[in-house]
Fold this sequence. Notes:
- By secondary structure, chain A is mostly beta strands.
- Helices cover 0% and strands 53% of the residues of chain A.
- Chain A has a six-stranded antiparallel β-sheet with strand order 3-13-12-6-5-4, with no helix packed on it.
- The two termini of chain A are 21 Å apart.
- In chain B, the strands form eleven sheets. In chain B, strands 3-2-1-7-19 form a five-stranded parallel β-sheet. In chain B, strands 9-16-10-11-12 form a five-stranded parallel β-sheet.
- In chain B, a hairpin with a 4-residue loop joins β4 and β5.
- Chain B is globular, with a radius of gyration of 32 Å.
- Among the domains of chain B are: 3-108 and 242-305, FAD/NAD(P)-binding domain (3-Layer(bba) Sandwich), CATH 3.50.50; 122-239, 3-Layer(bba) Sandwich (FAD/NAD(P)-binding domain); 488-556, no CATH class; 635-791, 2-Layer Sandwich (Sulfite Reductase Hemoprotein, domain 1).
- Chain B contains 27 helices and 39 strands.
- The mean pLDDT of chain B is 90.
- Chain B is an alpha/beta fold.
- The termini of chain B are far apart.
- Classes of the chains: A mainly beta, B alpha/beta.
- The interface between A and B is large, with 40 and 38 residues.
- Residues 559, 567, 569, 597, 599-601, 603, 605, 631, 637-638, 674, 676, 710-714, 750 of chain B line the site of siroheme.
Amino acid sequence: MTTAxxxxxxxxxxxxxxxxxxxxxxxxGSGVAALVDGTQVALFLLRGTDGNRVHAIGNHDPVGDAPVxxxxxxxxxxxxxxxxxxxxxxRFSLITGRCLDDxxxxxPVYRILLSDGYVYLVR
Amino acid sequence: xTLRLVVIGxxxxxxxxxxxxxGADRFRITLIGGEPHPAYDxxxxxxxxxxxxxxxxxxxxxxxYESAGIDARFGDRAVAIDPVNRTITTEHGSSVPYxxxxxxTGSYPFVPPIAGNDLPGCLTYRTLEDxxxxxxxxxxxxxxxxxxxxxxxxxxxNALMNLGLETHVVEFAPGLMNVQLDTEGSTMLKRxxxxxxxxVHTGTATQAIERAAxxxxxxTMRFAGAGDxxxxxxxxxxxxxxPHDGLAREAGLIIxxxxxxxxxxxxxxxxxxxxxIGECAAWQNRIFGLVAPGYRMAxxxxxxxxxxxxxxxxxxMSTKLKLLGVDVGSVGDAQGAVEGALAYTFHDPxxxxxxxxxxxxxxxxxxxxxxxxxxxxxxxxxxxxxNTLPLPGSPEALILPGSELTLPGADSxxxxxxxxxxxxxxxxxxxxxxxxxxxxxxxxxxxxxxxTGCGGCGPLLKSIVDAELARLGIEVDTALCPHFxxxxxxxxxxxxxxxxxxxxxxxxxHGNMRPDGGSRGCEVCKPAVASILASLWNDYxxxxxxxxxxxxxxxxxxxxxxxxxxxxxxxxxxxxxxxDKLIAIGAVAKKYDLYTKITGGxxxxxxxxxxxxxxxxxxxxxxxxxxxxxxxxxxxRTVKSCVGSTWCRYGVQDSVGMALTxxxxxKGLRSPHKLKMAVSxxxxxxxxxxxxxxxxxxxxxxxxxxxxxxGGMRPRHADLFATDLDDETLIRYIDRLLMFYxxxxxxxxxxxxxxxxxxxxxxxxxxxxxxxxxxxxxxxxAQMARVIGSYQCEWAATxxxxxxxxxxxxxxxxxxxxxxxxxxxxxxxxxxxxxxxRLLHTDRVEEAS
Lengths: 123, 849
Ligand code: SRM
Ligand SMILES: Cc1cc2nc3c(=O)[nH]c(=O)nc-3n(C[C@H](O)[C@H](O)[C@H](O)COP(=O)(O)OP(=O)(O)OC[C@H]3O[C@@H](n4cnc5c(N)ncnc54)[C@H](O)[C@@H]3O)c2cc1C
Ligand code: SF4
Ligand code: FES
C-alpha cells in the first residue's frame, strides 16, 4: 500500500487521518465496524446523488449499552440518513449523531475521508 | 345548587352508575359500600380459581374514587333509611344525609331453609370472601356438593372440580338450567356434564344436613325419599338469588310482587328521592339477574338525575356460555311457550349436540332457541331474534350443521340493531362513530365502548365498521411506513405481478421518492420487503442486493443477544436427535464456551458467540450433519412432536414421522411472522399442538388439523379446521394455508390475528383452502412447491462463499473478536456481565478471548 496519507491542518490543530480499509470492503446501504486506536467506529456507505459517501459514528449503542450500531438497518427519516439500532430500534442520525427517539442521547460523529479507493478516519 | 347524592352498594351496577356521573359537578357524592373493597367484576369471579387475583378483577380503586371527588366508604353497611328526614344510618353508627339516594344493593344467595344449613362446611358463591372460604374448605376435602343446577350452580361445580374435589350437583327440579333450556336441552346438558365426571342428582330435594357419622366425610345430606343420602365435605348453596330489598321494605318503599324494589322506567322508586338499580330493583315485577340490564338501569337513573332521560326498556336475557367446556346458548323464549309457536329441533346423538329453534306460527320470526353442545350459530340466531328479521325460506338452516346461513350481513340489520349487548351499542351508534372520524375497530371501541365487555360481538363489530367505512368511501390508511403507501399485501402483489426482485427497484417504481434523492427506506419497510422477496423468489438472503434489508438476526443468520453476541440454534426436526448428534453439539459448545440451554421448542440453543465465531461454529455443526434452525427468521421455527405410536402405549399414529415430514417440508419458508407447528400422537396432546399456528393431532383414522393457534403474548387455542385427513390431504391443506397466509397477511401478523381479521374468519378460510372457492388452490400448491424445491441451508451456502463470509468479521480492519465484551461464570457457564459487574471487574469476570 503506497498511498500517501493525506494530512490536514485546520485552525492550527494538526489532524491525523487513520487508514481503515479499502472502500470495496464496504457494502452500499449497510454498515461495518472498525477499531481505531481502541475505539469502535461504525461506518456506513451510502449512495448519494453525487456519488457514494461514507458516514461514521460511534459503534456503541448508549441505549442498549452494547457495541452494535454498525449492525443496524440504514434508512432515512425525511431524507436524513439514520441507522436503527439492532437491539431496541432507536434511530441515530448519521449526520449529527443525535438519537431521533430520545433527545437526551447522542453518539460521537467522525469525519471520513475517501482517497484513492481507501477509507480514512480523521482524528 | 349542589345535591347530596348517596349511593348504597358498590357492586358492578353501583360502580357503573358512578361512572355515568363523572364530571357532573351538581352532585356531592357519598358512596356506602358494604363489602370491604371497591367494586369488582363479579361476572368473572370464578377466574379467581384459574389464576386471576382480586386485583385483576377490580373495577375501581379508592384512589380513583377519591380523585373523582367521591367520599367512598367501605365495609360499613347501611342499616336504616329515614325517608322523612332523608338520612341513612350505618352499621358503625354514622348518619349520612341525602337529597337523592340510589340503592344498588344487589342480591344475596338464597339458602333454602333446611335444618343444618349453617353447619361448618355450608357455603355460598357470590363474593371474593366466599371464594376464599371455598378454597380453604376444599383444602382438606375430598367431595364437594353444589345445591342448585342453574347457571351459577354449574359454574360453581366447575370451580369445585378444578379444586380437585369429587363434585356432585343436587337439583330439586327435574332438569338442569331449566330457566334457560327446554327438557331435551337440559337432558343433553346433564349427559354431557356427567361425562365430565360430575355426578348430577336431579329431582332431588334436600331435607336436612347433619354432621356425618362416619370418619370419611364431614357432612351427610338427607334427601326426600326413604334412605336417600349423600356424604360430602363441602356444600355450596347456589339455589337462586334474592334481592337485597330489606332496607327499602323497612323504609316503606313499595316492593314488587316477587320481591325487589319496585321502580319506574327511570328507576325511580315509590319515593321520588330514591332510585333503585341492578339486582335489587324490580321493573314491571321482574328482577333481572344479569349485569347488562343492571347497567341499563344505572344509565336510566343517571339519565333521570341529569335530566337526559334514558328510560329502561327491559332487557334481553339471552345467554351464551361455556359451562365446564360445554357450549350452551339460550335465546329469547327457550321453551316455545307462546301460542302457536313452532319448533325445529336437531339432535346429534354422536357429537351430543341438541338445538332447538322456536319460530312464530307463520314461520317468519325467531322467538327463541336452545343450543347445547354447539353454539356456532348463536350470533346469527340472536341477531334474527333481536331485530325480528324476516327468516329465510328454510329457517332450519339456522340450526343445521354446516349450512350456509350464518350471520345476517351488516347491511340487512336495521340501525336500531343492538350489536354489542353488553354495552348496549347499536349499529346506528357505530355508524355515527365512524362518520364522526373513527376509522377503525380500535377507535370505534374506544368511542362507543362496543366489544369491551364479553368481546363476543367482535366479528360483527368489525364487519359493520368495515361496511360503514366502505359506504363512506373512506379508504383506511394502511401504508406500511413513510416510504410506501401500500400495505404488505399490496407490495406482495406488486412484486409478484411485476416480477420485482430488489428493494431499490421497488422503491424506485412504487416508493414515495424524495426529490433530494434521500429516500433510503427504513427499518420497517426494508425487512418487510426482504421477506416478500424471499417468499416469492427464495433467493439466498445474504445476496449483496438484499444484505442491507435484513434485521441483524437475518443478516447474520443468528439471534443477537443483549451484549451484542449471538445465539446458534441448529435444526432438530421434531425434537428427535441421535446420541452422536447430541455429543457433537456438546463438543462444539464446549470448544467455544457457549452457554447451552434446551429451548421451549424442543431443541438446543448455544449462546455467546461473537460474529467472527459464527462461521467456525457452523462449519463444525454442518460437518456433524446439522442445518440452520432459522431461529433468527420470520420463518418456520419448530415442529414439536410427541413420541407417538412408536413408543407410547396410547399413540395412534406416528407423530414423530409426521413432524419430521412437515418440518423438512417447510423449513426455510419465509413468512410475515414466525410459524410454529406441532404433531401429537393422540388426543392427549402432549405436543401442545393446539397452541401452534398449525397443529396436527392423530386420530384413529388419520389426522385432525388445527389452525391459527398462538402462545406468546396473546395466547389463543387453534381452531379445528378439518378432521380425519390422510397424509396427502393434510399436507395439501397445510401447503395452501401457509401460502395463502404468506400472500395475504400483514407484516408481523401471526396466523391467529390474520385469521381473526379475515372477513368471514375461519369459515372463509375453510372455503378458500378446502373448497377452493377462489380457485387458487393449485396455484398456492405450485408456489409452495417452488419454495420447497429451492430450499438450501443458508449456513451451508454462506460457508462456501468467501465474499459472504466477510460479513462475519467483528471489525473490518482487525482480525479476531471484541475483547471488550465481558462475561461472568454462573452455574458452570458463561453469561453476559451486568453493567455493574463490568465496572467492578470482580474476580468472576472474564474477558472474551
Ligand atoms: C430460546 C427460546 C426460549 C428458551 O430458552 O426456551 C426463545 C427465545 C426468544 N424468543 Fe421466544 N423463544 C422460545 C420459544 C418460544 C415459545 C414456545 C414454543 O415455541 O413452543 C413461544 C410461545 C409460542 C408462540 O410463539 O406462539 C415464544 C414466544 C415468543 C414471542 C411472542 C410471539 C407472539 O406471537 O406473541 C416473541 C416475540 C416476537 O416474536 O415478536 C419471542 C421472541 C424470542 C426472541 C427471538 C427474542 C429476541 O428477539 O431476542 C428470543 C431469542 C432466541 C434466541 O436468541 O435464540 N418468543 N417463544 C425458545 C426458542 C425455541 C426454539 O427452539 O426456537
Ligand atoms: C359467580 C357469578 C357469575 C356470574 N356470571 C354472570 C354472567 O356471566 N353474566 C351476567 O350478566 N351476570 C352474571 N352474574 C350476575 C352479575 O354478577 C350480577 O348481575 C351483577 O353483579 C349485579 O350487580 P349489582 O351491582 O346489582 O349487585 P351486586 O354485584 O350484588 O352488588 C351489590 C353490592 O351492594 C352491597 N350491599 C348490599 N346491601 C348493602 C347495604 N345495606 N349497605 C351497603 N352495601 C350493601 C353488597 O355488599 C354488594 O357489594 C354472575 C354472578 C355470580 C355471583
Ligand atoms: S400425545 Fe401423549 S399419549 Fe398421545 S401418543 Fe403422544 S405421548 Fe403418547
Ligand atoms: S356483546 Fe359483550 S362486549 Fe359486546
